[in-house]
Each structure stands twice: as C-alpha cells, then as structure tokens.
Batch of 2 targets.
Target 1
Amino acid sequence: TQLLEQSPQFLSIQEGENLTVYCNSSSVFSSLQWYRQEPGEGPVLLVTVVTGGEVKKLKRLTFQFGDARKDSSLHITAAQPGDTGLYLCAGYDRGSTLGRLYFGRGTQLTVWP
Amino acid sequence: SQTIHQWPATLVQPVGSPLSLECTVEGTSNPNLYWYRQAAGRGLQLLFYSVGIGQISSEVPQNLSASRPQDRQFILSSKKLLLSDSGFYLCAWSVSVAQGESPLHFGNGTRLTVT
C-alpha cells in the first residue's frame, strides 16, 4: 500500500513567517503533485515535480522533489493570510496496476494577519 | 476553457434514503472522471474512476455506485445511505492518459450529511 505522510498536520503562524511542510513516503513515485484546497472548494493544482532533485518556484512557494523521488517539501517565504488552506501532496506511481495517484492527508495552514 | 460542475453543494439526507450526485464537465472530450470522498482530517479517498462511457472502476467496496451515461457526465448514487456515508464528495476530471499522470481538476464538492 502506497502511503504518503504529510507533516505537520496543522500549522498556525503569523503573517511574514517562513514555513516548510513535508510529504514523505517509503515508496518511489514517478511524479508528485501539490494541491491547495480552501474551505468548501475542491483542491487546485499548484505544481507537479517529476525529476529527482527538481526544484520549482511559484512566487513565494518553493517545491522540491527528493533525489530518490520518495519525498517532497513545500517552503513558503513570508507567508500571507491568502496562503491559508489545506495543502495536499499526491504521488503518482506509474508502475502500479492502475497507475494511480495517492494522496496524503494534508497540512492545514493558517496564517494570521 | 474547461469547466466542471458539481451539484448540489450541500445535502442533508436521512439514513436509508437514496442518493444521486451529478457532475458534468465542459470544454473537453473523453476525459477521465473521478469521484473522491474527503472525510474530516483525512486525505482524499478515491471511490470510482471512469475512462469512458459505461466504464467504471471501483476502488473501495461500499454501498455507493457510479455511472457514466454520457461522455462528460458522472453520477454517484446510493440506494440506501448510511451514517458513515457523510463527508465531502469531490468530482474531478483529467485528460485521458494513465490515471495520475495528468493533474486532476476538481469540482467544488458536495457536503453530504446523513442524519
């Protein structure tokens, strides 16, 4: 069974602080996606990382895929209240029977003004 | 551009009643379609996915069923709801490649409360 562990589960910080959330697994993934979900809405894709060691930046968000493609991190610089939401990682295993996507349980981020 | 519509947004149903949630996609052809359930404090659980009309794969045994009567329509149903069916139901689509290889585009979900 593929299992993606996200940490921390909850994070509450003040505006302007930096933070990092983690997505870890003992399994290797072909690629990994990060989504953000706001209350009452569906998740929205932020980024897909494909290559081991890959780093992608999206404004103040920096995503990294581990060299072994088993883990990923999301770093937010100078967090803003608009960053508040549930951050979900999802790993794609091309080699599994269904080539399926496995979701972590998410990190609930709250940024206070 | 592609859009996905999911309704209703909220639903309160008594135990034992039937369920029908509908999802439609516009602006794309032959999409992969998915139903996920999200319980509080948990991630997304894949319930059903479909790669074409009438083709449904079930991930988790349960009292729910899904149907795809048209290319861009996906329906989630139950004959008799259980309390444990409460949750946030999300419909999603992706381009027609292997599941997971293409990002998912989600609807805004249906909050189902079974009382």
Note: Chain B has a mean pLDDT of 90.
Target 2
Amino acid sequence: ILNVEQSPQSLHVQEGDSTNFTCSFPSSNFYALHWYRWETAKSPEALFVMTLNGDEKKKGRISATLNTKEGYSYLYIKGSQPEDSATYLCAFSQAGTALIFGKGTTLSVSS
Amino acid sequence: EAQVTQNPRYLITVTGKKLTVTCSQNMNHEYMSWYRQDPGLGLRQIYYSMNVEVTDKGDVPEGYKVSRKEKRNFPLILESPSPNQTSLYFCASSLSSGGVGTQYFGPGTRLLVL
C-alpha cells in the first residue's frame, strides 16, 4: 500500500517567521508530486505540480523542492503571514495510478 | 468563471435513503474524481473517471456508485447510505489524468447520515 507522510502534523509560528514542511513518498516509479493549500471552510487549491527530480517551484513567498531519488519534497514559506494559515497537502502518484494524499500539515500564523 | 460545482453543500439524511450528490465542471476537463475527507485521514479517492462512460474504483468505493454520461457531470450516488458514510466529500476535475493534472476541487458537500 502506497503511503504519503507529511511532517509535522501541525505547526504554529509567529508572523514573519520562515517555515518548512516535509512530504515523504515512495521513491520507486515516481510520476508526480502535488502541493495544495486548504483553508478552513474552503476547498483545496493547487500550489505546485512537480514531475522532475530537482524541480524547484516558486509562487510568491512559497517555494517547493523535489527529490525523487530519496522520496521527499519540501515546502517553504518565507516570512509567514496570518493569511498563510491553512492546511498544506501533498499528493503523490506513480505512473498509471491515482493521486494519493497525505494527511496534511496545518500551519497557524499568529500576528 | 472556471469552476467545479457541487450540490447540495450540506445534507442530513437517514440510513438507507438513497441520495445523489451532483458535480459539474465547466472547464472541459476529461478527468473527474470523488474524494472523501475524514478527521485524521487524508483525502481518499472514491471513484474516478477518465472520460465519458469510463469510470473506475478508487481506494474506498464500497457503498458508492458513479456515472459519467456527459463530460461535464459526474454524480456520486449513495444507494443505501450508512452512518460510516458521514463525511466531507469533494469532487475534482483535471485536464489530464489525476497523476499529473492539477486537480480543481469543488466546494465540498458535508454529509451526515443518521
């Protein structure tokens, strides 16, 4: 059974802090790695889709890296703001399979 | 506006009473899927569809049915709901198969089965 692990489960930081989360996944037959942001009472929204080892993506203060050989991806948030408070989901797929989601990392940013 | 819509958004029902949750997308996406979200668990795929008349089981298909008669619609059917199907349900669509295509999620349907 394929499993996607995210750590930490939850995180509380102060406004202005930079933070990062980890997504671990099986390194064999890698196909794609997704990151989604899920705010309370809303639906998940896509941040990044990465397919190549060494991929780095950036959107504003949020960036992500991918290491398919060792099976992990990092999501970084620089200078966290209260509006960054959300649950961040990663999802992984192998070739020909559906996305498998992790349980998410819940970030809370205090002003 | 490009979007995925779901109806109803909230539903309280009783055990055994058949219900349908509708899902519609206006982005001409080929791939659609249904997920359920339960506390302490990640999003789990129920069913997916690669195109019209092509559907397949996801990780947790028991107790659910789907159909894909038109490209834009992908209803989720609970023939005889049970309390363990109380959950938050999301419909999603993507331009390409779920592995690579960015998933666009609907607003969610919160279901309570008494």
Note: The interface with chain A takes residues 33, 35, 40-45, 48, 58-59, 90, 98-108 of chain B (CB under 8 Å).
